[in-house]
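Thread amino acids onto this structure.
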C-alpha cells in the first residue's frame, strides 16, 4: 500500500482545504511531520484513517463524524477528506464526507445532511477515473479486503503509536494477550476453547441426566417391588451405577415371579368355593320365591271373593250404558237445536228494542223494505259530502294566503331596515381590511430585523459567559503549570537520590559465588549498604507517574484555555461592541412591536370573510324584497277565485243537509238507520228458522229412546256415560277378569304347590356365605393382579434401564474424550504442563515471530547489545505463554523488558512495532506497506542512539518504503530534510512543505 495524495477540507483544526503530496514527501524515503502542540499533526494521520475506514483511531471516535468538522470552517463549507493510494496494484481514490449540519437554503436554522462516500479507480490505459461505488458498506468491505487489515490492525501497523508499544513491553501476559488477539484475530481459537468447554458441559449434563433417569427407574423398580429390592447408595455420574441397578433389577424380577405363582394358586381355590356358594344361594332364593308366590296368590283370591257383589253391579251398569249409546246422537242434536233457538230469540229481542215504536211489531219482510228505502236516501248525499270537504279545503287555502301575506310584509320591512345601513357597514369593513394589510407588511419588515438581533444578543451572552470561563481557565492553567513543574522537580530530585545510592541497590542482589552484574567478580568483600532516606525504584516510578499525570493535566488545561480564547474571540466578533443589556432591550422592543403587528395582521382573513358575507347578505336582501312584491300581486287574484267558489258551495250544502247540522250528520243518521233495520230483519228470520229445527229434533229423540228400550228420553240420558266414566268402568271390569285368571294359574303350578309344602327358606344365611366366598375371591384376585402388575412393571422398567445403559455407553465415551480435549485447550489438564490455553499458545507463536522480526532491528539500534526473546515461563500462579524478555549481550543475562531505561524502551518499542508490522503484513496475505508513520518518542534518545535509530528507519527504503516521523524533537529538523510543518493560527491550521521539489 502506497499513499499518493491527501486532501482535507474543514477537517479537524484545518479550516480551509489543505493538501499533502505523499509522492514528493516519500521521494526522500524519510520525512518529518512536525509542529507545535495542538496544531494538528495527529489530525493528518486521523484523516488517512478516516478516508480508509470511515472512522478515526481509538478514543478520538465520537458523534458519528459530527466532531470531525473544523470549528474554523465557514458555515457553507462541507467537511471532506480525499485520499489517493495504490493497493494491490490498483490506483484508487476514496472521498468521504461526514454528516453535516448545514444552513437551511430557505429560512433560518440548520438541516442535517447524511454522510457520503465515493470510491473511484484510475484506468491506466485511458488515464481516466472510473466510479466504483457510493455505498458505505461496499466501500468498507472492498478496502478491508484489499488491505487485509481491520482498522485496529492498520492503526498499529501503519500508524505506529509508540506509547502503546512501550506499554506493551511493560504489560503483563493478560494485557499483552488482548493486544495480540486484536491484531492477529485469534478469536477462532478462543471460540474453539469455548466450544469445547460448552461441549464438555453439554456431554457431562447428558451423562448426568442419563444416570439420573437410570437411578429414577431403579427407584421406581424398588417401589414396584414393594420394598424387596435393595439399592446401593449411588449418585448420578458415579462408576458402577449401571451394573448395580441391573443386578438389583434381576433379583427383584425373580422374587416377583415366585409371588405371582403363589397368588394364582390361592385364586383358583377361592373361585371354586365361590361357585359352590353361588349354586346353594340360587337354590334357596328359588324356593323362597315360590313360597312367597303361593302365599300372594291365596291372598289375592280372598280379596276377589270379597268384591264379587260390586263386580256384578258394574257389569249391569255397563250393559245399560251400551244401550244408551244408540240414543246419544239424537240427544246431542236436540241439545244443539235448543241452544240455537234460545240464542236466535235473544238476538231478535235486542234488535227490535233499538227500532222506532212504529216498526217494533213488523215482520222480517217489512223490516227489510224499510232498510232498502233508507239506503237509497243515503246514496243521494255523496255529492253533498264532496262539496262539504271542498269547502273545508277552501277555508284552509284562505288561511294560508293570510299567513303568506303577513310573512312577506315582515320580510319586506326587515330588508328595508337592513339596506338602510348598508353603505356605512361596507365602509367600516373595508377600513378594517386596509388596517390589517398594513399590519401584515409591518410583520414582514420586523421579522427580517428580528433574527440578526437575536443572533447578536446570543453572541453577546456567550461572550460574557466565555469571558468569565476564560479567566477561570487562565487561573487553572497557571496552577496546572506550577503543579507540573513541582512534580517534575520532585521526580528529578528522587531520580538523583536513587542514582547516588544505586550501588547499594545493586549490592542488595549480590550472592556469594555469583558474578557481579557490574564488574563480574564472584567475591563481594565490602558491598555498599543502603543509607537512611534511600530512594528505591518503586518510589522513583511513582514520582515519574505523578509528574506525567501533572503534565497531562497541564496540557489539558492549556488546550481548554486555547479553545475558550478562540470561542471568546468568535463570540466578540459576532456580538460587536454593544452591551448585552442594550442588545437585550433592543430585542425586547422588536419582539413587542412584532407581536403587536402580528396580532393586528391576524384578523385580515376574518375581516375579508366578514365583508364577503355582508355582500352576500346584501344580494339576498334585495332578492327577497323583489320576490315579496311579486307574491303580493299574485295573491289578489287567487283570493277572488276562492270567494266565488265558497259562495256556490254554501248554497249547495244548505239544500242537502236539511234539518241536520251538516251533511255528514245527516249521512250518519241514515247509515245508523240502515244498519239497525238490516240487523233486525236478519234476527227475525234466524229466530223463525231455529224454532222449526227444535221441533224436528224433539220428534227424532222420542223415537230413538223408544227403540232402545227406555220409557222416556230422560231415562236414556241418565244411563248414558261420558268417555272418561266409560273407560274407567271398562278398566275395572278388565282388571277383575285378569286378576281372577292370574290367581287360578298360580294356584295350579306344580312347583309352586310343592315349594309351599316345604319348610320356609333362609336366603339371608345363604347370601352371607356367598358374600364371604366372593370377598375371598376378590382378595385373591387383587393379590394375583398386584403380583402380575409388579412383574410387568419390573419387566418394563428393567428393559428401559437396560436400554438406558446401552444408550449411555457412547455418551460417556464422548464425554471422557471431550473433557480431555477441553481441559487440554483450557490449560487445566494435567497433560498441559505449562497450563497454556490454546489461544495463548497461538499468540505465543505469533509473539515469537514478532520478537524474532524485532530483534533484527533492535540489534542495530542498540549496537548489538539487546535481543528480544519470547518466554513461555509461568509467572506466579498464572499461566505461561506470553512472556517477553530482553537478553543483554554485555552481561549475558536475560531480564524483563520493564528494566529498560526510557531511551532503551523507546527504540525497543520501535523495533517491536516494526517487527509487528512485518508479521501482521505477512499475516494479511503479504500486502506491501510502502508508507509508515511513527508517532513521537524520539526525545528520549541521545545523539548516538538517535543516529542508529534513524539509520534503521532509513534502511526501510531498501524495500522501497517511506517512513513519516511525527515528533517535536528540534534536532530531527536538521537531520531530516523532507519535512511537513503544521502551522496553527486563529483561523485554523495550515500545512507547509520543506525540502521537497
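Threaded sequence (997 positions):
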Amino acid at each position: 500500500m502506497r499513499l499518493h495524495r491527501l486532501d482535507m477540507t474543514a477537517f479537524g483544526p484545518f479550516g480551509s482545504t489543505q493538501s499533502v503530496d505523499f509522492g514528493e514527501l516519500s521521494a526522500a524515503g524519510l520525512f518529518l511531520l512536525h509542529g507545535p502542540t495542538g496544531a494538528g499533526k495527529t489530525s493528518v494521520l486521523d484523516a488517512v484513517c478516516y478516508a480508509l475506514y470511515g472512522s478515526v483511531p481509538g478514543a478520538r471516535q465520537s458523534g458519528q463524524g459530527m466532531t470531525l468538522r473544523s470549528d474554523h470552517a465557514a458555515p457553507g463549507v462541507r467537511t471532506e477528506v480525499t485520499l489517493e493510494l495504490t493497493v494491490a496494484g490498483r490506483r484508487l481514490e476514496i472521498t468521504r464526507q461526514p454528516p453535516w449540519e448545514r444552513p437551511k437554503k430557505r429560512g433560518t436554522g440548520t438541516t442535517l445532511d447524511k454522510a457520503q462516500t465515493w470510491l473511484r479507480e484510475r484506468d491506466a490505459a485511458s488515464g481516466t477515473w472510473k466510479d466504483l461505488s457510493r455505498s458505505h458498506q461496499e466501500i468498507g468491505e472492498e478496502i478491508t479486503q484489499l488491505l487485509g487489515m481491520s482498522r485496529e490492525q492498520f492503526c498499529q501497523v501503519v500508524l505506529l503509536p509508540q506509547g502503546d508499544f512501550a506499554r506493551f513491553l511493560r504489560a503483563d501476559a493478560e494485557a499483552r494477550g488482548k493486544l495480540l488477539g486484536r491484531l492477529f484475530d485469534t478469536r477462532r481459537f478462543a471460540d474453539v476453547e469455548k466450544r469445547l468447554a460448552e461441549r464438555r458441559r453439554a456431554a457431562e449434563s447428558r451423562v448426568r441426566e442419563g444416570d439420573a433417569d437410570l437411578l429414577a427407574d431403579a427407584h421406581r423398580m424398588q417401589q414396584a417391588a414393594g420394598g424387596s429390592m435393595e439399592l446401593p447408595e449411588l449418585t448420578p455420574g458415579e462408576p458402577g451405577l449401571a451394573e448395580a441397578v441391573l443386578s438389583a433389577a434381576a433379583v427383584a424380577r425373580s422374587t416377583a415371579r415366585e409371588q405371582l405363582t403363589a397368588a394364582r394358586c390361592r385364586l383358583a381355590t377361592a373361585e371354586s368355593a365361590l361357585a359352590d356358594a353361588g349354586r346353594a344361594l340360587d337354590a334357596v332364593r328359588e324356593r323362597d320365591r315360590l313360597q312367597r308366590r303361593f302365599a300372594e296368590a291365596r291372598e289375592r283370591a280372598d280379596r276377589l271373593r270379597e268384591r264379587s257383589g260390586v263386580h256384578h253391579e258394574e257389569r249391569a251398569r255397563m250393559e245399560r250404558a251400551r244401550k244408551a249409546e244408540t240414543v246419544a246422537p239424537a240427544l246431542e242434536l236436540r241439545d244443539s237445536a235448543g241452544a240455537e233457538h234460545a240464542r236466535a230469540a235473544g238476538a231478535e229481542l235486542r234488535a227490535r228494542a233499538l227500532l222506532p215504536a212504529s216498526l217494533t211489531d213488523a215482520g222480517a219482510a217489512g223490516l227489510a223494505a224499510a232498510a232498502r228505502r233508507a239506503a237509497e236516501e243515503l246514496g243521494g248525499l255523496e255529492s253533498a259530502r264532496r262539496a262539504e270537504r271542498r269547502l273545508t279545503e277552501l277555508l284552509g287555502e284562505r288561511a294560508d294566503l293570510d299567513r303568506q301575506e303577513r310573512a312577506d310584509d315582515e320580510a319586506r320591512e326587515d330588508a328595508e331596515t337592513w339596506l338602510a345601513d348598508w353603505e356605512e357597514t361596507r365602509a367600516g369593513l373595508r377600513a378594517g381590511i386596509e388596517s390589517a394589510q398594513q399590519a401584515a407588511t409591518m410583520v414582514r419588515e420586523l421579522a427580517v430585523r428580528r433574527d440578526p438581533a437575536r443572533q447578536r444578543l446570543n453572541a453577546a451572552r456567550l461572550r460574557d459567559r466565555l469571558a468569565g470561563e476564560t479567566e477561570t481557565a487562565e487561573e487553572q492553567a497557571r496552577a496546572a503549570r506550577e503543579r507540573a513543574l513541582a512534580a517534575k522537580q520532585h521526580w528529578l530530585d528522587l531520580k538523583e537520590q536513587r542514582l547516588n545510592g544505586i550501588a547499594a541497590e545493586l549490592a542488595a542482589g549480590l550472592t556469594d559465588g555469583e558474578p557481579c552484574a557490574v564488574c563480574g567478580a564472584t567475591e563481594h568483600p565490602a558491598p555498599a549498604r543502603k543509607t537512611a532516606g534511600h530512594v528505591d525504584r518503586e518510589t522513583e516510578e511513582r514520582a515519574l507517574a505523578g509528574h506525567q499525570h501533572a503534565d497531562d493535566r497541564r496540557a489539558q488545561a492549556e488546550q481548554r484555555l486555547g479553545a475558550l480564547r478562540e470561542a471568546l474571540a468568535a463570540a466578540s466578533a459576532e456580538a460587536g461592541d454593544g452591551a448585552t443589556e442594550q442588545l437585550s432591550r433592543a430585542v425586547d422592543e422588536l419582539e413587542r412591536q412584532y407581536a403587536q403587528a402580528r396580532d393586528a395582521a391576524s384578523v385580515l382573513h376574518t375581516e375579508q370573510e366578514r365583508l364577503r358575507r355582508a355582500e352576500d347578505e346584501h344580494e339576498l336582501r334585495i332578492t327577497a324584497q323583489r320576490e315579496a312584491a311579486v307574491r303580493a300581486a299574485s295573491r289578489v287574484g287567487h283570493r277572488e277565485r276562492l270567494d266565488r267558489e265558497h259562495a256556490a258551495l254554501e248554497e249547495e250544502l244548505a239544500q242537502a243537509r236539511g234539518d241536520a247540522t251538516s251533511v255528514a250528520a245527516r249521512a250518519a243518521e241514515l247509515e245508523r238507520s240502515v244498519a239497525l233495520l238490516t240487523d233486525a230483519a236478519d234476527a227475525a228470520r234466524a229466530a223463525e228458522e231455529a224454532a222449526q229445527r227444535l221441533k224436528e229434533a224433539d220428534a227424532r229423540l222420542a223415537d230413538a229412546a223408544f227403540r232402545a228400550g227406555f220409557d222416556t228420553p230422560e231415562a236414556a240420558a241418565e244411563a248414558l256415560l261420558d268417555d272418561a266414566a266409560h273407560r274407567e268402568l271398562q278398566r275395572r271390569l278388565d282388571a277383575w277378569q285378569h286378576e281372577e285368571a292370574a290367581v287360578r294359574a298360580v294356584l295350579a303350578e306344580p312347583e309352586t304347590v310343592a315349594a309351599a309344602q316345604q319348610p320356609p327358606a333362609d336366603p339371608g344365611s345363604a347370601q352371607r356365605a356367598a358374600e364371604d366366598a366372593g370377598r375371598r375371591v376378590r382378595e385373591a384376585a387383587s393379590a394375583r393382579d398386584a403380583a402380575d402388575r409388579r412383574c410387568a412393571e419390573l419387566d418394563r422398567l428393567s428393559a428401559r434401564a437396560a436400554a438406558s445403559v446401552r444408550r449411555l455407553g457412547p455418551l460417556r465415551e464422548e464425554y471422557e474424550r471431550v473433557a480431555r480435549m477441553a481441559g487440554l485447550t483450557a490449560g487445566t489438564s494435567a497433560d498441559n504442563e505449562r497450563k497454556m490455553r490454546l489461544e495463548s499458545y497461538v499468540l505465543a507463536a505469533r509473539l515469537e515471530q514478532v520478537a524474532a522480526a524485532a530483534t533484527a532491528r533492535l540489534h542495530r539500534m542498540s549496537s548489538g547489545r539487546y535481543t528480544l526473546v519470547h518466554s513461555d515461563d509461568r509467572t506466579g500462579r498464572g499461566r505461561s505463554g506470553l512472556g517477553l524478555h530482553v537478553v543483554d549481550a554485555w552481561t549475558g543475562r536475560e531480564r524483563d523488558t520493564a528494566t529498560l531505561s526510557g531511551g532503551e524502551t523507546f527504540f525497543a518499542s520501535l523495533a517491536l512495532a516494526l517487527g509487528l508490522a512485518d508479521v501482521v503484513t505477512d499475516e494479511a496475505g503479504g500486502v506491501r506497506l510502502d508508507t509508515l508513520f511513527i508517532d513521537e518518542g524520539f526525545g528520549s534518545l541521545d545523539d548516538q542512539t538517535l543516529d542508529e535509530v534513524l539509520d534503521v528507519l532509513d534502511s526501510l527504503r531498501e524495500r522501497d518504503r517511506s517512513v513519516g516521523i511525527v515528533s517535536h524533537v528540534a534536532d530531527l529538523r536538521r537531520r531530516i530534510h523532507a519535512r511537513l510543518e503544521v502551522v496553527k493560527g486563529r483561523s485554523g491550521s495550515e500545512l507547509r512543505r520543506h525540502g521537497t521539489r
